[in-house]
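Sorry to interrupt, but I need a hand with the structure work. It will help me judge whether the discrete encoding reads sensibly. Write everything out right here, beneath this request:
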Amino acid sequence: MKNNNSFTSFIILILCCLCISPVLGFPGDSLKTNSVKDTSQYFAEYSELLALRIYSNTKWNTLDIIRNEQKLILKPNVRTSLGLGFNYKSYGLALAVGIPNGSESNRRYGQTKRFDVQANVYGEKVGFDGFFQIYRGYYNSNPQEFVDWDSDEFPKIPDMRVLSAGVNAFRIFNSDKFSYKSAFVRNQVQLKSAGSFTLGIFGHLDLADSENGLKPKEIPDSLLTEFDLKSFNTLAIGITIGYLYTWVISDHFFINVGVTPGFGNQRIELATITGEKAINNSPAAQLTARSAIGYESPTLYGGITGVVVWRNFQFGGYELDLSTENFKVFIGKRFKISKKRK
């Protein structure tokens, strides 16, 4: 996978977790003795409490097109969303509203319209993730590799559209000791460090197109040798195997890290600006990386999570690297729901 910016962001998140967590601390009672239900020596149950949270969420959907050792990096004008969410028992819902980009940001990077939804269902032994994204309006973030570019305004492809949809289901093998929900749902709390192997299946649909080709008009055709790609779409299915681990630093802090590669088969269709089309079936590869840092107390909780999914396609002399990235910061509070007596 060649999306270096995504990989660097993920590594920075892990390093921040390692550097910040040991030096922070807050007084408070033991989580184990204050949990609603102690299900084991390894994690405690808080699903009977109503958990409310506020959060910020930033998402990317980046495309790298590589041909003849030339690499064109295409990105949307990212914006951050602010939202509210809750979890109670097995139910949860979160809604967010995007913060509009300012005029200066739109001038430099162009305007990106987006539609983005996701669904997550996590049980004790199985989990499910699903997402659907449409981004329209991209810019080229590395024009200096093709021309002498000294402007602070980047080349743009206003009509470029990227659609990505995916599902991922997985089985957690060490569910008696490892809680996935403690890191990403927060209605359980990991009390002792533990990890688990996972095994699952995935399916991804990716599509990108632009009427005048997937390259900005500011870069001459002569500098993009045979760079004539107008659109592509891929459908990939396969299996995943990974490992997730939560390191409990203290009663109040933890770090979670996970890596899940996937392998399978994919159907790829390419179309050029001259109308030529090609279809091929080939092996599929993807990599999902997750990281989380969290603070826990019987009532307050907070943290940072990052999830990146990389996909790689090679066909017709092109190599395509597509990444879907999600970075979230949140803080919440748990409330006890009083039950009426008859």
In short: Residues 63 and 211 are 17 Å apart (CA to CA). Residues 4-20 form the longest helix (17 residues). Residues 10-30, 33-40 have pLDDT under 50 and may be disordered. The two ends are 61 Å apart (CA to CA).
